[in-house]
Amino acid sequence: MSESSHSNTLAGWREWVQLPDVGVPWIKAKLDTGAQTSSLHAYGVEAFDRDGHAWVRFAIHPWQRSDADAVIVECPVLDVRRVRSSSGHVEERFVVLMRLTLIGREVDAEVTLSNRDSMGFRMLIGREALSRGFLVDSSRSFVGDRAPRPMRRRNRGRT
Predict the structure, then answer these.
(1) What 3-state class would DSSP assign to 72?
(2) Distances from the Cα of 102 to the Cαs of 32, 117, 142, in angstroms?
(3) Rounded CA gap, 147 and 40, in Å?
(4) What is the pLDDT of residue 130?
(5) Residues 6+ apart with CB under 8 A from 3
(6) For the chain, domain boundaries
(7) Which of 34, 57, 37 has its CA nearest to residue 45?
(8) What is the mean pLDDT of residues 11-39?
(9) Which InterPro entries does the protein's record reference (predicted)?
(10) Using an 8 Å Cβ cutoff, are 7 and 134 in contact?
């Protein structure tokens, strides 16, 4: 695991995050200490079997209100969980393990796949990932790097 030994990295309530293992250079995320698990906007979610193990294929549109830079991802399924949304709705979601980079630090996070189209952020980082040495200052935003504007490119699948 490549988690940094730094502790108490300051983060704002919203930050730009990278998902390097699946080819997503930037995605805007809300840091939510009220949510246990992180969540990612995924569409076209399809479960399949690979060598006797459960996998899931899905697509990510990393930019809000844009289909630029869409990425097709395949990951092993870590779990399927019943998750209660902030509106109280309960649904079963696939859980995958993803490496994310937040303010220059890489951490592995359990991430549920859900439709976040109506939400203001494509990704939510929950307290399970934040407990690895991040302090969230709710009065600050984008303490880390800012993402560039979306650029159109061809879809790249990563396995």
Answers:
(1) strand
(2) 14, 22, 10
(3) 18
(4) 96
(5) 105, 106, 107, 108, 132, 133
(6) 14-155
(7) 57
(8) 94
(9) Asp_endopeptidase (IPR008503), Peptidase_aspartic_dom_sf (IPR021109)
(10) no
Contact 92, 82 (CB under 8 A): yes
Residue 71: name the closest of 133, 9, 154 by CA: 154
8 A C-beta contact, residue 66 and residue 150: yes
Calpha distance 71→52 (Å, rounded): 25
Question: Alpha-carbon distance 43 to 113, whole Å?
Answer: 8
- Measured in residues, the chain has a length of 159
User: Per CATH, which fold does 14-155 belong to?
Assistant: Cathepsin D, subunit A; domain 1 (2.40.70)
Q: Residue 49: what residue type?
A: D
Q: 76 or 154, which is more confident? A: 76
What are 42's two structure tokens? 């995924």
Q: What are the pLDDT digits (tens) for 130-141?
A: 999 999 999 999
Sequence-distant contacts of 43-51: CB under 8 A, at least 24 apart? 43/115, 43/117, 45/94, 45/113, 47/77, 47/94, 50/76
